[in-house]
TrEMBL record:
It holds the Pfam family AAA_31. Involved in chromosome partition. Localize to both poles of the predivisional cell following completion of DNA replication. This is Chromosome partitioning protein ParA. Gene3D superfamilies: P-loop containing nucleotide triphosphate hydrolases. Residues 11-193 form the AAA domain. The lineage of its organism: Bacteria, Pseudomonadati, Pseudomonadota, Alphaproteobacteria, Hyphomicrobiales. PANTHER family: P-LOOP CONTAINING NUCLEOSIDE TRIPHOSPHATE HYDROLASE, PARA FAMILY PROTEIN CT_582.
C-alpha cells in the first residue's frame, strides 16, 4: 500500500480550515471510511475538543477513556488511545473536551508544536492492531489556527482543505495558506497542500457553480475533480453514529466520498512516481 515518502510509515493528512462548518469532520469520517473500504488501514485522529469525529464514528463519551488530550499532554502514548470502529480497518483516536485546556498546559514546553508528530512517529511499527500498520492517518483539526492545528500541520505530510461551496468560500484561505507556509519553513519542511475538496455543492444553486469556478481558477489543479454534493443522508448519518457509507452506501454523498478516495490514492501514486 501507500507510504510514499517514509517507508513503513503512514501517510499523514491534516483536514484543516479555520472556518467551522465547512466539512472537515464529515470528510475525515467519510474519506477515512472510503479509504478503508478500498483496503487501506486508516486512523482518524480527532483533534477537535468538540469530538464530532468521535461521536460520528459511534464512539460515545464514556468509551473515550484515553483521548488525544492524554497523548498531547504526555500522559499516554497514541497506541493506547486508539479504539476500533464499526468500519473494518478504520480506527479512531478520540478526543474529549479536555483538549480545550491542553494548549495552556503545554505552552511552556519546548516541544509543544511537535508533540503530535512525536506521538505518530512513536506509533511506527507498533501501529499493529489486527495485523497491519496504518497506511493513512487523517487528522480532524479544530476550527482555529491554534496550537492544536499547528501540531497537526507539524505532524502531517500534506494538508487537505475542505471548502464549502458558499459565497465566502475563499475568505480565510490565504490565512490558512500563510500558516501552512510558516509551518513548512519553521517546523516541517515536507508539508505540502494535498488538495482542496469542495463540499456541500448544491446543483440547484447558481452560486454553488460560481464558487466551484472561482476556487478552480484560484487553486488550479490543487482542487480535486470530485465535488461533494449537499446530501441529507450525509448530515443524518452522524446522529446514528455511522459514516454515511454504512448508513446509505448508494446515496450521492457516499458515492462522492468513494470517488474522492480513489482520486486521492491516484494522486498518491503519481506523487510516488514523481
Ligand atoms: P467542520 O468539521 O468543518 O466544522 P462538519 O463536517 O461538522 O464541518 O460539517 C458541518 C455541518 O454540515 C454538519 O452538520 C454536517 O453534517 C453538515 N454537512 C457536511 N457535509 C455535508 C454534505 N455533503 N451534505 C449535507 N450536510 C453536510
Ligand atoms: Mg469539525
Amino acid at each position: 500500500s501507500i507510504g510514499t515518502s517514509r517507508p513503513g510509515k503512514p501517510r499523514v493528512l491534516a483536514l484543516a480550515n479555520q472556518k467551522g462548518g465547512v466539512g472537515k469532520t464529515t470528510t475525515a469520517i467519510n474519506l477515512g471510511t472510503a479509504l478503508a473500504a478500498t483496503g487501506e488501514k486508516v486512523l482518524v485522529l480527532d483533534l477537535d475538543p468538540q469530538g464530532n469525529a468521535s461521536t460520528g464514528l459511534g464512539v460515545d463519551r464514556k468509551s473515550r477513556r484515553i483521548s488525544t488530550y492524554h497523548v498531547l499532554a504526555g500522559d499516554s502514548d497514541l497506541a493506547a488511545a486508539i479504539v476500533p470502529t464499526a468500519v473494518p480497518r478504520l480506527h479512531l483516536a478520540p478526543s474529549t473536551l479536555d483538549l480545550l485546556g491542553v494548549e495552556l498546559e503545554i505552552a511552556n514546553e519546548r516541544n509543544r508544536a511537535h508533540r503530535l508528530r512525536l506521538a505518530i512517529d512513536a506509533l511506527g511499527v507498533r501501529s499493529v492492531l489486527d495485523g497491519d500498520p496504518f497506511t493513512y492517518v487523517l487528522i480532524d483539526c479544530p476550527p482555529s489556527l491554534n496550537l492544536l492545528t499547528i501540531n497537526a500541520l507539524a505532524a502531517s505530510d500534506a494538508v487537505l482543505v475542505p471548502l464549502q461551496c458558499e459565497f465566502f468560500a475563499l475568505e480565510g484561505l490565504s490565512q490558512l495558506l500563510t500558516t501552512v507556509e510558516q509551518v513548512r519553513s519553521s517546523l516541517n519542511p515536507r508539508l505540502s497542500i494535498h488538495g482542496v475538496v469542495l463540499t456541500m455543492f448544491d446543483p440547484r444553486n447558481n452560486l454553488s457553480g460560481q464558487v466551484v469556478a472561482d476556487v478552480r481558477e484560484f487553486m488550479g489543479t490543487k482542487v480535486y475533480e470530485t465535488v461533494i454534493p449537499r446530501n441529507v443522508r450525509v448530515s443524518e448519518a452522524p446522529s446514528h453514529g455511522k459514516p454515511v457509507l454504512l448508513y446509505d452506501l448508494k446515496c450521492a454523498g457516499s458515492q462522492a466520498y468513494l470517488k474522492l478516495a480513489s482520486e486521492i490514492i491516484q494522486r498518491e501514486r503519481s506523487l510516488r512516481a514523481a
